[in-house]
Amino acid sequence: MTEYDTIVVGVGGMGSATAAHLAERGQDVLGLERYDVPHSMGSSHGLTRIIRKAYYEHPDYVPLLERAYELWDELDATHSTQLLHKTECVVAGPEGSEKVAGARKSAEEHGLEHELLSGAELGERYPGYDLPDEFVAVVEPDGGFLHVEQCVVAHVNAAHRHGAEIHAREGVLDWEPTADGGVRVETAEDSYTAEAMVVAAGAWAANLLPMLETEAVPERQVLGWFQPEHPERFRPDSFPVFIVECEEGYFYGFPEYGVPGYKVGKYNHFHEEVDPDDVAAPTPGDERVLRDFTERYFPDAAGPTMRLETCMFTNSPDEHFIIDTLPDYPQVVVGAGFSGHGFKLSSVVGEILADLAIDGESRHDIELFSLDRF
Questions:
Q1: How far is residue 174's CA from residue 187's CA, in Å, rounded to a whole number?
Q2: The model's pTM
Q3: Least C-beta-crowded within 10 Å: which of 44, 145, 216, 230?
Q4: Cα–Cα distance for residue pair 352/64, rounded to 1 Å
């Protein structure tokens, strides 16, 4: 039986950051990942994730985002591949739409730099955009994207530099509390004990913590990459990341980066709850939804399909995060239910989960994310 201070279950976006923060504080850390590090089976792949501060989800995220940006800059300084790319971020929709109103509220409440443009003004500035003239856009200069797989790699490298042990392809079969207030974790390869355990298992969180069955629900997502007819309009230096609320739904997208094609997705896609071990491959119907949106609002990007890929959201009932200790087992910390908008905050979520594992509380305000709200 091998003993550690903390075992981190899941070494994706949140788990890799947690392992790095714990190891940097001198903890003896074991990270257990059922797949490769990094991998494309969950929620931490697909090359790019949006990062922004004018957070329409809730103004309380903004202080955490300020800290997340600081931590990404620190991590970027240690890594050979640039992690955070600032392109500006556009949140657009009809006047009074939920996303636009929420972004404006967060920006104004926290004094974030931003400007308001009409759809027509946006198209003049960024020719790749062809939104309706009457749309309103919140344009945030600090917005951009993170190179998702390299963020995981950078956090794992940081964890390794500070002595953490990471095991890929070693999934957790079961766990139990120990008489001394710690945990015992069983895998197919071995048994391990620790003073604390952090569960950052994404779509598999409820498999380990059945009390999360209705609080952390996996949902199938599909992403598409289409080849622009005018590539110069869709480069990172000429095309901001976007979130567009329209009659077709709620879409997000990116400039061309890393692979051919502009990238687009639809939040909650077809609202398909799934078994994370059985996620269907992309279909022509998936492609059609993404292409129809692109043809209408970004027509210069609606060239041949370059790539389709599935990933997963893990949704909480209110789509806010779950970050807490378990009421009956305070030595077990959970980070789950990131609901499709968590990756950008993984640098600071790792810091928070490390706080909880070591001290049982965090320096950050995380009341919004408590389990008892359910």
A1: 7
A2: 0.98
A3: 230
A4: 10
